[in-house]
Design a protein that fits this description.
The complex is a heterodimer.
Chain A lengths: L1 H12 L4 H10 L3 H29 L10 H35 L8 H24 L30 H29 L12 H33 L12 H35 L6 H14 L15 H13 L1 H15 L8 H24 L1 H7 L3 H31 L5 H27 L16 H31 L37 H6 L10
Chain B lengths: L19 H26 L10 H4 L4 H22 L3 H32 L8 H32 L8 H28 L2
Chain lengths: ~550, ~200
């Protein structure tokens, strides 16, 4: 241990030319560096997507506002949705997975390091392609710039007749390319977890983080591929004059909806399962108790993985399906609430009777529990087809899924940032600034998204660029927009905290949280080969066994 | 290193996990399967929905010879891999070359069929829904055959240069999984396009 720390500080002290450092990062196949590249890349897009959201909220702050034109507004909601799903949440979760999975299962790298680098650069290129549309989308037609067909791009809006120029092509190709990257990463995560676990780590002794990412990776394989297929069809339609979604030639626009949502709904679980994984690591450590109901957690996750593939058409109740399809998708959608509920009970069971420490990561995870519960409840409301006929495509739906993605996923992500920042950087973050971030973001989130349900109930449809006064929507829209500024303030503190702590933070040491999984047994930041000696584990909490040789876990498991 | 090995060892039996090559290839096949499923569903859904001709029953002929070639290439690649596993490099090279020839014949037959459809029957991808779904599904499969043939050719060149030895048999086996998958998909495509679709 000591010799490595010395080697590490020595390497830090010798200043290297910027060219060498850049060369190292661009050429790297190290899972930790690629993980950090994923995360930084996603943070840049988080800022861009956030700016787009802010532009929309400013436009909607009062009725008849002229902040942006309707055309720009359409581009903003399309780019915001696409960016946040494909170029923020997916890469950031892959980044954490990449960084943490080999460390947690006691491996030296991912199963296919070069595939890993290839996947990252494909994803990065996909994002650039999407944003290049601002410059290149015009094509030769003098048509619109960025894509403006909505993030689910329903046919026939995407037909060449209605979407002239190349904006939709950039959208299609960007997602196609980054989709290949996602499939590559999913293959890598699966192979890593199945084939590279350290001796003694049977499937039943893996950290829940690895289990949940295993399920996530399997879902990516089966969920992203339909999107890839659908994007191929759309490209064939647009470039070669095929008729998949061309209703004039007998094609079907509803087919696109099915293909998109067969990807689109499992995608929600692809995003939320890693968020569950963060919560399942953070909550036990800050409750000073092992996770409650480990086997049930695994079973519930696998159950979500299966049922998640049979709920997609609840996005299409308003399209008009027969009563059998409506009943089927209502029932499956309600059923998927059961394993999710089991998880919430397990996290509460973990906290119950524990010695809870409210550090910033824990605060974010506790907020996540409550917010995700509410998001689930509005989800159950919307799962009833008649209720959805009333509120489908309204701001109620917008509020619901932002509750899932911001209130659920982003909150645990912030928690994960604070929890693993000491491991990744070697330094502690500033706890006071962390708490400021939490409370500002918490207030902002609730101002924006709690009150967003109301205009939806009052009949405000999504994706309108302005509205008439006198419908009772004004005050709610005003409150929503005010909340955004609290969120922006919180995010600035977050970025500032990361930057300041990276340079000036207190040295963290190997194990600042007195945690139990293998990543805390190695140095912070870990050396390139992770472990000088491949560890051997006997229980789900290998570090507990070392710290408490008189009362090890493996006696009871 | 704060190593965990200080814990009493219970490693009586050796710690063996599945090979990463095989798991990776099976994962890739799962993803490919999902892509093909979408195209097959689209094909089945659009059967009989074309507004204009030509229709499948007018222009399609059963590609029996091509199918026999492709399906038997599964047997030859299996023979090649087991020969390499036993260290018989010469036998391996012969079967591997056979696989390559059979794959090339299949691709040539597809090219001939497409030429016939395009220039004699006037069916292109933009003619009608049959053309759209036919060329995309068969084309997607032919693309996978092409990728497989590129890999086979690279391995063939390496074999001729004497670089392929017994220790590479696992790699050959991992690749053969892909080739078997392409063959199985052809059975599905054949059933859907040439039997149900006609």
């Amino acid at each position: 241990m000591a010799s490595e720390t010395i080697a590490l500080t020595a390497a830090h002290d010798v200043p290297q030319p910027i060219g060498t450092i850049l060369h190292d990062w661009v050429n790297t196949v190290d899972h930790k560096k690629l993980g950090i590249l994923y995360i930084l890349y996603a943070l840049v897009f988080l800022a861009i997507g956030g700016i787009e959201a802010t532009i929309m909220r400013i436009q909607l702050i009062v009725p008849h506002n002229h902040f942006v034109s309707p055309q720009v507004f359409n581009r903003m909601f399309t780019m915001h949705g696409t960016t946040m799903i494909f170029f923020v949440t997916m890469p950031i979760l892959f980044g954490f997975g990449n960084y943490l999975i080999p460390l947690m299962i006691g491996a030296r790298d991912m199963a296919f390091p070069r595939l890993n680098a290839w996947s990252f650069w494909l994803t990065a290129f996909g994002g650039l392609l999407l944003y290049f549309s601002f410059i290149g989308g015009n094509g030769l037609y003098g048509a619109g710039t960025a894509p403006d067909v909505g993030w689910f791009a329903y046919a026939p809006l995407t037909a060449t007749a209605f979407s002239v120029g190349h904006s939709t092509d950039f959208w299609t190709l960007g997602l196609l390319v980054s989709g290949f990257g996602s499939i590559g990463t999913a293959i890598n995560i699966l192979a890593t977890i199945v084939c590279l676990r350290c001796p003694g780590m049977t499937l039943g002794k893996m950290p829940l983080f690895a289990w949940l990412n295993l399920v996530m990776a399997a879902m990516v394989l089966l969920a992203i591929s339909p999107l890839t297929a659908a994007q191929m069809m759309l490209s064939l339609d647009r470039f070669l004059g095929a008729h998949f979604f061309d209703t004039l030639a007998g094609g079907s626009a509803v087919m696109w909806m099915h293909f998109f949502w067969i990807f689109g709904h499992p995608e929600v679980y692809v995003l939320v399962i890693p968020a569950f994984a963060f919560a399942s690591e953070i909550i036990p450590v800050f409750s000073r108790k092992p996770i409650f109901g480990y086997p049930v957690m695994v079973a519930a996750t696998i159950c979500i993985g299966f049922v998640g593939f049979s709920v997609w058409a609840h996005h299409m109740f308003t399209v008009g399906m027969n009563s059998y399809a409506n009943s089927f998708f209502t029932i499956t959608t309600m059923a998927i609430g059961v394993p999710t509920g089991i998880k919430i009970f397990n996290w509460i069971g973990t906290m119950w009777g524990g010695k809870i420490i409210f550090k910033t990561p824990m605060l974010f995870c506790v907020a996540f529990l409550f917010q995700f519960l509410i998001a689930g409840l509005t989800g159950i409301m919307l799962s009833a087809a008649p209720f959805d006929w009333q509120l489908g495509n309204s701001y109620f739906v917008v509020a619901h899924f932002h509750y899932v993605i911001v209130g659920g996923i982003l909150f645990t992500l912030f928690g994960a940032f604070y929890y693993w920042f000491p491991k990744m950087s070697g330094r502690m973050y500033n706890e006071t600034l962390g708490k400021w971030h939490f409370f500002l973001f918490f207030i902002g989130f609730h101002l924006t998204f709690d009150f967003m349900h109301v205009p939806g109930l009052l009949g405000m449809p999504r994706r309108i660029y302005t509205y008439e006064p006198g419908r009772g929507w004004e005050i709610w829209n005003l409150i929503c927009t005010i909340g955004v500024f609290f969120q922006i303030a919180g995010t600035f503190i977050f970025i500032g905290n990361l930057l300041w702590s990276y340079f000036k933070g207190k040295i963290a040491g190997n194990d600042p949280w007195d945690a139990w999984t293998l990543e805390w047994s190695t140095s912070s930041p870990p050396v390139e080969y992770n472990f000088a000696e491949i560890p051997v584990v006997k229980s789900r909490r290998p570090l507990w066994d070392i710290k408490h040789p008189e009362d090890p876990d493996w006696k009871y498991e | 290193m704060s190593s965990i090995s200080s814990a009493p060892s219970s490693m009586d039996q050796p710690w063996v996990l599945p090979s990463r090559g095989r798991v990776g290839m099976l994962s890739l096949i799962a993803a490919e399967l999902a892509i093909f499923t979408i195209f097959v569903v689209a094909y089945l859904f659009y059967i009989g929905k074309s507004l204009t001709g030509p229709l499948p029953k007018d222009v399609l002929e059963l590609p029996i010879f091509a199918s026999i070639c492709l399906l038997s290439s599964s047997l030859t690649i299996h023979a090649a891999v087991s020969a390499l596993r036993n260290g018989r490099v010469g036998t391996y090279a012969m079967w591997w070359f056979g696989t390559m020839v059979l794959g090339l014949i299949f691709l040539g037959e597809t090219a001939r069929e497409w030429y016939h459809l395009i220039f004699d029957k006037g069916l292109t991808i933009s003619t009608n829904l049959f053309g759209t779904t036919y060329y995309s599904l068969v084309g997607l499969h032919a693309f996978h055959v092409t990728v497989g043939l590129i890999c086979i050719s690279i391995a063939m060149v390496l074999t001729l240069l004497g670089k392929v030895k017994q220790e590479h048999s696992e790699r050959a086996e991992v690749f053969s999984l892909y080739w078997h998958f392409v063959d199985v998909v052809w059975i599905v495509v054949f059933t859907v396009v040439y039997i149900i679709g006609r």
